[in-house]
UniProtKB/TrEMBL annotation:
UniProt-recorded Gene Ontology molecular function terms: 2 iron, 2 sulfur cluster binding; metal ion binding; oxidoreductase activity, acting on the aldehyde or oxo group of donors
Source domain of life: Bacteria
Domain 2Fe-2S ferredoxin-type: 5-81
PANTHER family: OXIDOREDUCTASE WITH IRON-SULFUR SUBUNIT, OXIDOREDUCTASE, IRON-SULPHUR BINDING SUBUNIT-RELATED-RELATED
Protein name per Swiss-Prot or TrEMBL: Ferredoxin
Organism for this UniProt entry: Chryseobacterium hagamense
Keyword annotations: 2Fe-2S, Iron, Iron-sulfur, Metal-binding, Oxidoreductase
UniProt keyword annotation of Oxidoreductase present: yes
Pfam families: Fer2, Fer2_2
Taxonomic lineage from the root: Bacteria, Pseudomonadati, Bacteroidota, Flavobacteriia, Flavobacteriales
């Protein structure tokens, strides 16, 4: 197809070369082309944070990002973060602090939390809350989410 563009993405440590229409979002490329369905589509309009992934270590709303714009980038999705026998510290903290119920927002929350911790931002609980405000939770697990992030921050500082 002449409309297709070639996009190189390193996803969770694996190199992929995809042929995509220029208007395909990074979210759809991950979910549909690569079958990585851990990243969720909530609103598809940049309003819920369910689609958050890490691109070159920074948190990004993948529904608002065109895949072709990230040619040559490194993407980490929830599938690339920890595994059942070796959870990431943020995943452990989410379990310990009851930071999820239905789990729909959780992959995005975890990617966002890891990005925030790596950015070294958010001194206080209020700042962390503010920096996580783009990730909505319909189940009201927000208190647990912030508790989990604060616990990881305090352990690593
Ligand atoms: Fe991307 Fe809601 S699906 S912000
Ligand atoms: Fe259900 Fe957050 S745990 S939306």
């Amino acid at each position: 197809d002449q409309n297709n563009q070639s996009v190189a993405l390193m996803v969770n440590g694996h190199q992929h070369r995809l042929e995509l229409k220029p208007w395909v979002s990074l979210l759809d490329a991950l979910r549909h082309t690569l079958d990585l369905t851990g990243t969720k589509k909530g609103c598809d309009h940049g309003q819920c944070g369910a689609c958050t992934v890490l691109v070159d270590g920074k948190r990004v709303l993948s529904c608002l990002t065109l895949a072709v714009m990230k040619d040559g980038s490194e993407v980490t999705t929830i599938e690339g973060i920890g595994s059942p026998d070796s959870l990431h510290p943020v995943q452990k903290a989410f379990i310990e602090h009851d930071a999820f119920q239905c789990g729909y927002c959780t992959p995005g929350q975890i990617c966002s939390a890891i990005g925030l911790l790596e950015e070294g931002k958010g001194e206080t609980r209020e700042e962390v809350q503010d920096l996580m405000s783009g990730n909505l939770c319909r189940c009201g697990a927000n208190r647990g989410i912030i508790n989990a992030i604060m616990a990881v921050k305090n352990e690593t500082e």
